Amino acid sequence: PSAIYLKDYQVPPYLIDKTELTFDLDEATTVVTSRLHMRRNPESTQQNAPLVLDGGEDVKLIGVAVGDCALPAEAYRVNEDKLVIDSTPDAFVLTCETLIEPQNNTSLEGLYRSSSMFCTQCEAEGFRHITYYLDRPDVMSVFTTTIIADETRYPVMLSNGNEVERGKTEEGKTVVVWHDPFPKPAYLFALVAGDLAVKEDVFLTQSQREVALKIFTESHNIDKVDYAMEALKRSMRWDEETYGREYDLDIFMIVAVDDFNMGAMENKGLNIFNSSCLLASPKTTTDDNFLRVEAIVAHEYFHNWSGNRVTCRDWFQLSLKEGFTVFRDQSFSADMHSDTVKRVEDVSFLKTAQFAEDAGPMAHPVRPASFIEISNFYTLTVYEKGSEIVRMIHTLLGEEKFRAGSDLYFERHDGQAVTCDDFVAAMEDASSIDLTQFRDWYSQAGTPIVTVTDSYDESTKTYQLTMTQETLPTPGQDSKVALHIPVRMGLLSQEGDLLPSSLDGTVSDEHVLHLTDFEQTMTFENVSSRPVPSLLRGFSAPVKLRYEYSAQDLLLLMSSDADGFNRWSAAQQLAVNELTQLINQAIQGQALSVDSTLVDGFRALLNDGSLDPAMVALILALPSQAYLSELANPIYPAAIKQARQHLKKQLANTLSEEFERTYHEHNMAVDYQATAEQIAHRSLKNTALSYWVETGTEAAIAALTKQYETADNMTDQFSALSIAVHGQLSNAGDLLASFYQQWQNEPLVVNKWLALSAGQEQDNALQHVQSLMAHPAFDLKNPNKVRSVLGGFGQNVSGFHNADGSGYRFLADQIILLNKRNPQIASRLCTPLTRWKKLEPTLSALMKAELERILAEDLSKDVYEVITKSLN
Ligand code: B3K
Ligand code: ZN
Q1: Which of 160, 195, 321, 601 has the fewest CB atoms within 10 Å, i.e. the most exposed one?
Q2: Domain termination residue (choose one: 174, 195, 216)
Q3: What is the value of pTM for the model shown?
Q4: How many domains does the chain have?
Q5: Which ligand 1 atom lies nearest to the CA of residue 375?
Q6: Domain housing 16
Q7: Would you give the distance in Å from CA 531 to the centre of its chain?
Q8: Are 847 and 836 in contact (CB under 8 A)?
Q9: pLDDT tens digits, residue range 345-380?
């Protein structure tokens, strides 16, 4: 397999003005007939180029015609996956008849079957597995889709746009025609056929148009879509109010399918969702999952403008739609719930997972310069760091100018396929703020390290901050430029009061510093006393901040900073410092001994009734195994686990009364609702319980058992179960068994059970995971189940990081097994193995050997790319 490069981009030699598709759906073979209204692209420099259409090995060509003439065999050829026609008129209708077998499609790309329905997934390059096409996002076409099927088995037949005709064939099959008036690239095409139930609603747009809203699921799930429907209406309203974006078709549909490679897909007018990201009910869905459903419904809906009306020129520009849309969904969730809580969760995720990606062998810029398989670039970097870039633009421009930039972007590029640079240009043009240097964020990989030192001069009341930035080399990028880094900050007095200061003539308690050089010094004047700096408020840039805070500074920030995010951040740093010491003691085989600072900080937190319980819960949650691994070099997984367990136990024992009291205070009888307020109380209650049971007292265990048995919602029931499992309580096995008994007929709940079971730390963790894969609840064809079990196992320190290498070998076996069946899922499963260079030497060698073993197989492009880059 070879790489393709951004620098080689050329406009398409042909355009497709109209696309007419007919699907004759059948369980054995599906016949697809396409009529493409094509012409040469006047802007192409390749006016004599042959017509090369993308296809796939799974597409069988029956016949091809130009105009009314069937092409003779010598007029065209099928080369690997391409259909090549040497000569064509300037404008013509190309007709292709192809056969496909959706029932044998295990890659879940193109047209496939999930349960008893037909459905599609075309982004990024799935459409070519349906029929021959110019399968690239800059070829935008108006689609008309005819679906022919047996109505008794497929009463619901859907595609993009509006239903315009319905009738019968001579053989009595049903024919439904859909027309989408908005030109779109093939990746936004969708088709669904099945026996589905529907929930309907109506949305009145800001210009008083009625939009029919329909959510389709298998009938046994239709009672779980009310929350998604409400979330959809909130999203539609929010996008009108916040971005001035109104929905454009008269109908908006969502379909839930069980077998889906990722979360959801924004097909025009017909979103298709992984059922795990759509279905929700208090009894079966946890708080986190409710919020996830809301965020993903919003994300896919927001794509209607940021992605569909304005789309990407080529796949290197993926972050144009994804980074912006993630930023939009994050802002939406923040507005629906709590700003600070949402920011802490998003940053925590970024620092754990995206920073790890940016430091590993797959590190790439937000706008990659090359790829072998685009599916591998639906990454945390493109999505989450991409969103951080948009957020920095928001910080640099301010609310109003940002909105003006967004308006200009949508107006200027409506109906076009554009680049990240076009997005920045619109922001620049609308604001008159120069983003020339800022653009380098799109092309430079790696996380900048910003190191800050300071000094205070009592006699002149001046305070100086010196900041440096450095980005370490990443694959293919040895030397790095200085980025434009916005650093939002303020100063606190030693008593914790706001300390206004003057910077470049502006007096304020908060400033945005522009770090644009490798090293820069900023001088603040009129600073009345020696300050503690609160740096990078709200995480104003995706960087690693280094500043030598004393424990006292951190306690001060934690209790007094005006910025809620930085209060959390200080607490997190305090815990990281403590854990780093413990980890080092563990590595050296010393006795672990905990310092009292964190204990004091936590005590103060638990005794302050004025705080937001959600924030208290976030602070009490110790830095995760994964985050501590990201910070470590090399990584000793067992030492990290030991340090975390030790610290948790120490905190639990010292503050047992506080935890017990907190548990009871926040244990309220209410009718379940997924509101920020209720979620906050549940989350603090369950965090307190997780500490309290560490004391091993009967009262704590009894409280947990009672909560498990009497909970009327999944959050409380599953929290109790997880605490029992992770706390290695003696009743954990019984509770797991009873949980499965209770929920065996709810696949989404069973998936949670699979993940928790696979993550259970125990001596024979590997055998246990093997037995889960043989369990009737498991299904290798279903990505959610594979992710649950193998994802859960990846978190299992004793199982996955077993010193004999058996955990790595097992994962490698599963990757090899899935490599051909479902390359996208196989490739995702490689992620934990890509971290081998950072592991301690013995584990590192064992992991590397597994990568080499995988490489010896006949690999899909997806897996090949990740494995070869990892071994480089
Ligand atoms: N755009 C899709 C992701 C498609 C992934 C293809 N491998 C979902 C989203 O980001 O909204
Ligand atoms: Zn998206």
Answers
A1: 195
A2: 195
A3: 0.99
A4: 2
A5: 7
A6: 4-195
A7: 38
A8: yes
A9: 999 999 999 999 999 999 999 999 999 999 999 999
